[in-house]
Amino acid sequence: MLLRTCLPLLLLPFTAMWAQHYEDFRDSLHDSSADFRTRCEKAATPKLALAIAKMWLANAKRDRNYIAQSDAYQWLLYSSDKTEDRFAYSDSVIYASKKTGQNEKIGASYLTRGSLFYNEKKHIQALDHFLIADQYIARCENPYLSNKLKYAIAQTKKYLGFDHEAIALFKECAAYFEDENDRAYLNTIHNLAMCYTNIGDNRLCTAYTQIGLTASLDYEDSEMHSYFMNAEGVNQYFLNNYDASLRLLQSSLPMLLKKKDFANEIRTLFYMGKANHALGNTAIAFDFFDLVDKQMRLKQYIRPDLRENFELLIDRYRSKKNLEKELYYVNGLIAADSALFADFKYLSQKIEKNYDTKALQQEKSRLEHTLFLTKTIYVAAFLLLLTILFFIVRHYRIKVNKLKLTFERIFNETATKEHDILLKKELNIAPEVIDELLKNLKKFEEKKKYLERDLGQIRLADILHSNIKYVRQVIFQYRGKKTFTYINDLKIDHIVLLLKNEKRFRKYTNQALADEAGFGSVQNFTKAFAARTGTTPGHFIQELVIEIEGGN
């Protein structure tokens, strides 16, 4: 009886709360875009905020209000915790922003997508989008957006190794953010300090870390204070002050672990290892280097200044004559170089190496051969012992040959199956999307749009009304080629057809043929021509003239 009497009273606050939420939700049906944003920000739960944002988007679509659509998609993007959803929403932000015709909206949308790529460590794609954003933002009078873009471009340039270019941009950002945004100003000063370390100007690095340490205390920003201590810790290593370096790096490490900033965490562990190594604490140093290796493999993360970690481990195990460990780290270094060349295509000539690719491959072959011989000797001795013990010398060679043939057969079958699986792997793309993309690809080929000058992946995706990821997967699956090879082969096939069918083209220079095919340079044209035909344009034309014109 008591429960029956009290239950309505107990439920009353919750009923009122949900009634209020319902009223808020119902009222939002007629809100302006600004009202929707306010209601999303003040929503009692993330679920309610998401529902309001989706209603915001539905209203914007109903009214064909592309500005509101762009804002709603932007909110959904920042609210999403799934990477694939964020990228999907960023496509929609760009689409809606383009419909507005407003340079500021379009530029901001490309800046957002570039930032997503940067967070995923896809720095080349990030920089490409930042540069597209710059084309639109440069036409606006929005200094905050302009400097935000400038900072993003500078960060990417710093990561790619273009520190001098990054420094110039960071200085402009620092001058603006100093009076506008405390945290942005501290971040910019921190990046300047790291850039000066990268180019070897340790004096200016210290000057900027001191500015940052003082400012972070003034702003009561303990997090950035730790970042400046970390930057100065790396700088002190290069000044040969190893004890000071270790103290600063050690004191900043807890903050990096708390923030889960794995990139700076790995870098810090590496320089702690280097400082210990310089102080003669070899065992401690290699404990750090082993930890760095484990973290890089776990996070699938590499950058040029961490490449040395592999070299140090290779040298250590070579000196210990531990061939298996040496081979393990040689393979790691080869994989790291492959990743670096893929991500740092603009930087490949700047990466300083003590082990070039050819030497690494030779070293790998030597180690594998030595290990193979060693293991073969052990196996042969063991088999010989068994043969003597069980008096089956007569069957020894037959068994070994059968084993060898079986191994080769299994190896070949496995390699063939893996290759077939790779080519036949089902794409994780909706069938209707694939069909539409294939239709557009066919139109692209028929209309010879591949002849567009300097045609790249972003432009190709735009022509095909899709995104880079889908275009790359569909071309590989249905054309059997990587995107750049596919484009280049179409261009070269076009030129070959012209050379065979129209006499005047046989008198063209390489530059003229490159322009006809839409190549950005003669070097790219001749390289692509040789890859497709197996010979140079000049030799191809010479042979063609002999074949068709009898040498006349």
UniProtKB/TrEMBL annotation:
User: Do you know which InterPro entries this protein is assigned to?
Assistant: HTH_AraC (IPR018060), TPR-like_helical_dom_sf (IPR011990)
Designated name of the protein:
Helix-turn-helix domain-containing protein
Signal sequence span is: 1-18
Give the UniProt keywords, A-Z: Membrane, Signal, Transmembrane, Transmembrane helix
- Origin: domain of life: Bacteria
**Positions of the HTH araC/xylS-type domain:** 435-543
Q: Which Pfam family, giving just one, matches this sequence?
A: HTH_18
Please indicate if the UniProt record lists Methyltransferase as a keyword.
no
The record's annotation in SUPFAM superfamilies points to: TPR-like (SSF48452)
For this protein, the parts annotated as crossing the membrane are: 371-393
